[in-house]
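Appendix B, record 7
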Amino acid sequence: MATLGEHIVELCKIRSVSTEELAERSGLSLELIRRITENGHIPDLAPLLKISRSLGVRLGTLLDDHENLGPVVTRAGEAGETPRFITGLPSESKVKDEGREGLTFKPLAAYKSGRRMEPFIVDIAVDAEQSKSPHEGEEFIYVLNGSVSITYGASAYVLRTGDSIYYDSVVPHCVLAADGAPARILAVIYEPA
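Structure tokens (predicted):
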């Protein structure tokens, strides 16, 4: 399975886009692009969406190995068993093995081609770190277990098991565990065409 950085490098080659051009197009620092492509760093969701838009692909193209043209069925017990990426860790930490867990994104429809929605089961550890950031599109979050604190613009919300929120992602936002305990959410991210 190719890494995120390898997918980005391959897409840049196909599109004849240099690392410098990708940084300029995405509005991200050259240092961050190099950390992703050369050092295996996994950034938060907002930079990933900026990179995918800059390369003219959907987020799933960066994260997927192969795609299915028909429907994708994910059975109970199989949902999100394999993490697609982990974020919300300090910048020097790259892997869960270092004692931190952050936010672990597990896909529900990883191999569905042409999708505009990205559904994930997200496990949010108490130690997750995340800054407010915007990105294109919309998000729907449903709390499966625990409580989450969502900062959206200047407002803050605490959602508990069974609560949901739907918002425009262009407003800076972040999602963290609340009440000193881990949480699990269903997050559906819509990417405009």
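Remarks on this record: The chain is about 25% helix and 30% strand. Confidence is low (pLDDT under 50) at residues 92-97.
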